[in-house]
From TrEMBL:
This is Cell division protein FtsI (Penicillin-binding protein 3). It is found in: Membrane. Gene3D superfamilies: 3.30.10.20, 3.30.450.330, DD-peptidase/beta-lactamase superfamily, Penicillin-binding protein 2a (Domain 2). It holds the Pfam family PASTA. GO terms for molecular function: carboxypeptidase activity; penicillin binding. PANTHER family: PEPTIDOGLYCAN D,D-TRANSPEPTIDASE, PEPTIDOGLYCAN D,D-TRANSPEPTIDASE FTSI. The lineage of its organism: Bacteria, Pseudomonadati, Bacteroidota, Cytophagia, Cytophagales. One of its GO terms (cellular component) is plasma membrane. It comes from the Bacteria.
Length: 696
C-alpha cells in the first residue's frame, strides 16, 4: 500500500513537470521568448556622423573620422569546417595581434580567445585601442580574419572620432565636447552639427557592452549640417603666435586677441590663452574675449569723447587745465601716469596722452551738474550696456550702472573706464563702429550652415545692424583724428610705421582684487583699426597682469600695442588689396614719375593696349620709359651680351630675369626699384659672380 502511494506521488510529480514543459513551450513560450529577446537583443540608437566646421576659405577646422575597435566572435569557429580554419591560424593570428598592439604576449591573446570559446562567449573585445581604416584593410588579410565576419568571426566596431586638422589652433573658439564640458562652436551649434541619430539592432555581450547584429528594421542616421565660419586660418595663426610670444615675454597671466573685418563684422581670428598653474606654458582654457568681464580702462575714453562731441559739440582744440596731474574728487585722488602732469593741453592731447585728469574735467564740465543721465543715455545709444547676443554661448552681459544720488566720483571714474564691467569683444564692436563710418554691426563667427552646397541657414540675414549711425560725420572726423594722434604722437607712438596708418587707443587699468585696486598689477589693452585712412580690419589685444622688467613694460604701450602692430603688419603684408599701388593727384589723374623706368617692350605694349594708349615703343627687347611734361617717351635700353647691364630703374623681378639668364647670382636688399648695383654697367664679368642690388 505504501509503495503504491509513493509511486502515485512520483507519477503525479512527473506529470506536473511534463505539463509545465508543455505550458512553457506552447502557452507561455512567446511571452518568455520576447522577454529573453529584450534582455539580450535590443534596439539601440546609432549616432549620426557629426557635421564639419570650415574656415572662410573652405579649409577644414573640425571633422569626424571613422575609427574602429577590434572585436571577435570565438563561437563562429565551432563548426567542423570553421574549426579547421581556427586551428590552422590561431597561433599566427595571436602573434600578429601581439606585434601590432604591443600590449601583451601572443600567448595571452591565445588564452583569452580560448577562454571565451570555453565559456561560450559570443563576442570579446580583443583590444580597446582605436585603429584607422588602413589598419582594418591590413587586418582583413590576417589568418582567420581573412575569412570575414561569418567564417572568421572578426568584428570591426565603427566609432566616429572628432579631428582638428590644425591641431590646437583656435581650440577654445572651434570648441569641443568632453564629458560635461562643452564649449565654442561645437557647443553653440551642437544641434545643427549633431544630425539625426538612427536605430539598429544590438546584442548584449556583457558588462553593459553591445555589438551590432544584422536583421530587424533599421533607421539610417542623417549626418549633421556643415558649419561655415568666418575664421581665416592665416590670421588666426598670426594672432595666436603673436599673442603667445608676448605672454611668454612678459610672464602675463592671460590674454586674448580678436580680429574683425570692419565692414562685415566677421571675426577673422579669436584666440584666448591662459598660463597654466606653476608653469610657463599657455593653453586655451577660457574664452576671455567673450566672457572676460573687467574694467576696460582708458580704451573706454573713446566712448566718453564721442559722447562729449555728440551732446556738447566738444572741439579737439578745447583747452583743459590738467595742472600737476592730480585731482581730488570727493574722498578720492585721480592721477595721471605722468607724475609732473601735462599742464594746459587741448582735448586732442588729453586723448593722445590718455590724461585721466583731463578727461574727468571735461566730463564734469559738461555732464556734471545734473546732466549725468545724458551721458549714460549716450552709452546706451552706443550699445555698450547691451548684450551682443554673440553666436558663441554663453556671452557676457555688460554692467554699466549710473552712480547713485550724491555719488560725485562715479561719473569721472566711469568716464575713464573704471567701475564698470565689459568684455574685449564688446569694446571692439564699439571701435569697429567708428571705423565703419559710425555703423554699428553685430559681430558674427558663423556665416551659414550647409548640406553639401545647399545653404540651410544664412546667419548674415539675421545679423543685427543699427541703421542709425552711433554718431555724426563731424564727430567721426574728430574722434578719428584723436585715434590717429594716439599712434602718431601719443601713448602708442612706438607702433607708428611708414607703410600704413594705425588708429587706436591704449588702455591700462589697475586690477581689482578683493575689492581694492592694486598698483603694479594691470590689465592692458590696445584697440584700433587699420589702415586708418581706409579701415579694413579692427582688432583688440588684451594682456592681463604683465610682469615686465621695468615699470613701463607693465603698461599697454609696451605690453599690448606691439602685439597689435605685429598682427597688423603680417595681415598688411599678405593682403595686397590694402597696398597703395598708385598715388593720384588732386585732379584724380595718375602722377607720372620723372624717374626712368625700365621694362620689357612686350610688357609695355600689353599694358598700353589694355588702357588704350596709342603711343608704344618701336624697338624690341628692353625699353626705358620717362615722363616729361605729362607725356611718356621711350628709348631702347641696351643689354650687351658679354657685359653687366644697367639695372637701375628695373623692378626686382626684371633684374633677376636679366641677370640669371646671363649666369649671374644675385643678392638684394630693400624694396621697390633698383637704385644701385655692386658691379657697374658695361663691365665684363664672368658667370657665377654675385651682383648685389640695392632697392629703393
Amino acid at each position: 500500500m505504501r509503495l503504491r502511494f509513493v509511486f502515485l506521488l512520483i507519477l503525479l510529480f512527473a506529470g506536473g513537470i511534463i505539463w509545465r514543459i508543455v505550458q512553457l513551450q506552447n502557452i507561455e513560450g512567446e511571452k518568455w521568448r520576447k522577454a529573453s529577446s529584450l534582455r539580450y537583443v535590443s534596439e539601440r540608437t546609432i549616432e549620426a556622423v557629426r557635421g564639419n566646421i570650415y574656415a572662410d576659405d573652405g579649409s577644414l577646422l573640425a571633422t569626424s573620422l571613422p575609427k574602429y575597435r577590434l572585436g571577435f566572435d570565438p563561437l563562429v569557429s565551432l563548426s567542423d569546417k570553421n574549426r579547421r580554419i581556427f586551428d590552422d591560424g590561431i597561433e599566427e593570428l595571436c602573434k600578429k595581434l601581439s606585434n601590432f598592439y604591443g600590449d601583451k604576449d601572443w600567448k595571452d591573446y591565445y588564452s583569452m580567445i580560448n577562454l571565451a570559446r570555453h565559456e561560450k562567449d559570443r563576442y570579446i573585445l580583443l583590444n580597446n585601442s582605436l585603429i584607422d581604416f588602413q589598419d582594418v584593410k591590413m587586418m582583413k588579410k590576417w589568418p582567420i580574419f581573412k575569412e570575414g565576419k561569418y567564417k572568421g568571426g572578426v568584428v570591426f566596431e565603427k566609432v566616429n572620432v572628432r579631428y582638428n586638422p590644425f591641431g590646437k589652433m583656435g581650440f577654445r573658439t572651434i570648441g569641443y565636447k568632453k564629458d560635461k564640458e562643452k564649449v565654442g562652436i561645437e557647443n553653440s551649434f551642437d544641434s545643427q552639427l549633431a544630425g539625426v541619430p538612427g536605430k539598429g539592432i544590438f546584442e548584449k555581450i556583457g558588462q553593459g557592452s553591445f555589438r551590432p547584429i544584422d536583421g530587424g528594421e533599421e533607421a539610417i542616421p542623417i549626418p549633421g549640417l556643415d558649419i561655415h565660419t568666418t575664421i581665416n586660418v592665416n590670421i588666426q595663426d598670426v594672432a595666436e603666435s603673436s599673442l603667445l610670444r608676448a605672454l611668454k615675454r612678459s610672464g602675463a597671466d592671460k590674454g586674448c586677441v580678436v580680429v574683425m573685418e570692419v565692414a562685415t563684422g566677421e571675426i577673422k581670428a579669436m584666440t584666448n590663452l591662459t598660463r597654466m598653474r606653476d608653469t610657463s606654458n599657455y593653453a586655451e582654457t577660457y574664452n576671455h574675449a567673450v566672457l572676460g568681464l573687467t574694467d576696460p580702462g582708458s580704451v573706454f575714453k573713446l566712448a566718453s569723447m564721442v559722447a562729449l562731441m555728440e551732446e556738447w559739440n566738444l572741439s579737439n582744440e578745447e583747452l583743459v587745465e590738467t595742472g600737476d596731474g592730480k585731482m581730488k574728487i570727493g574722498d578720492k585722488i585721480l592721477e595721471d601716469s605722468k607724475t609732473t602732469g601735462y599742464g594746459t593741453i587741448t582735448a586732442q592731447s588729453v586723448f593722445e596722452h590718455s590724461s585721466n585728469v583731463g578727461t574727468a574735467k571735461l566730463m564734469l564740465k559738461y555732464f556734471g551738474k545734473g546732466n549725468e543721465k545724458k551721458y549714460y543715455k549716450k552709452l546706451h545709444d552706443f550699445h555698450l550696456d547691451q548684450r551682443l547676443n554673440f553666436q558663441l554661448r554663453p556671452d557676457a552681459i555688460p554692467r554699466i550702472s549710473p552712480p547713485k544720488k550724491g555719488d560725485i566720483t562715479g561719473l569721472p571714474w566711469n568716464s575713464i573706464g573704471y567701475g564698470m564691467l565689459l568684455t574685449p569683444l564688446q569694446m571692439l564692436t564699439f571701435y569697429n563702429a567708428i571705423a565703419n563710418d559710425g555703423k554699428w554691426i553685430q559681430p558674427i563667427i558663423v556665416k551659414e550652415t550647409r548640406v553639401a552646397d545647399k545653404v540651410e541657414d544664412d546667419f548674415k540675414l539675421k545679423q543685427e545692424v543699427d541703421e542709425n549711425p552711433i554718431c555724426s560725420e563731424e564727430t567721426l572726423k574728430k574722434v578719428r583724428k584723436m585715434l590717429e594722434g594716439v599712434v602718431e604722437r601719443g601713448t602708442a607712438s612706438n607702433i607708428k610705421n611708414d607703410l600704413y596708418k594705425i588708429a587706436g587707443k591704449t588702455g591700462t587699468s589697475q586690477k581689482l582684487i578683493n575689492g581694492k585696486y592694486r598698483k603694479g598689477m594691470y590689465y592692458t589693452s590696445f584697440i584700433g583699426y587699420f589702415p586708418a585712412d581706409a579701415p579694413k580690419y579692427s582688432c583688440v589685444v588684451a594682456i592681463d597682469n604683465p610682469r615686465g622688467v621695468k615699470k613701463e613694460a607693465l603698461f599697454a604701450s609696451d605690453a599690448s600695442a606691439p602685439v597689435f602692430k605685429e598682427i597688423a603688419d603680417k595681415i598688411y603684408a599678405c593682403d595686397i588689396q590694402m597696398h597703395k599701388l598708385l598715388a593720384k593727384d588732386a585732379n584724380g589723374g595718375v602722377k607720372l614719375t620723372s624717374q626712368k623706368q625700365i621694362a620689357h617692350t612686350s610688357d609695355i605694349k600689353a599694358i598700353n593696349e589694355e588702357f588704350g594708349i596709342e603711343r608704344k615703343p618701336s624697338n624690341e627687347g628692353w625699353s626705358v620709359m620717362q615722363a616729361e611734361n605729362g607725356k611718356v617717351h621711350y628709348e631702347e635700353h641696351s643689354n650687351p651680351k658679354n657685359k653687366v647691364p644697367d639695372l637701375r630703374g628695373m623692378s626686382l623681378r626684371d633684374a633677376l630675369y636679366v641677370l640669371e639668364n646671363k649666369g649671374f647670382k644675385v643678392s638684394y636688399s630693400g624694396f621697390g626699384k633698383v637704385k644701385s648695383q655692386s658691379i657697374p654697367p658695361g663691365v665684363f664679368a664672368a658667370k657665377n659672380r654675385t651682383i648685389g642690388l640695392v632697392l629703393n
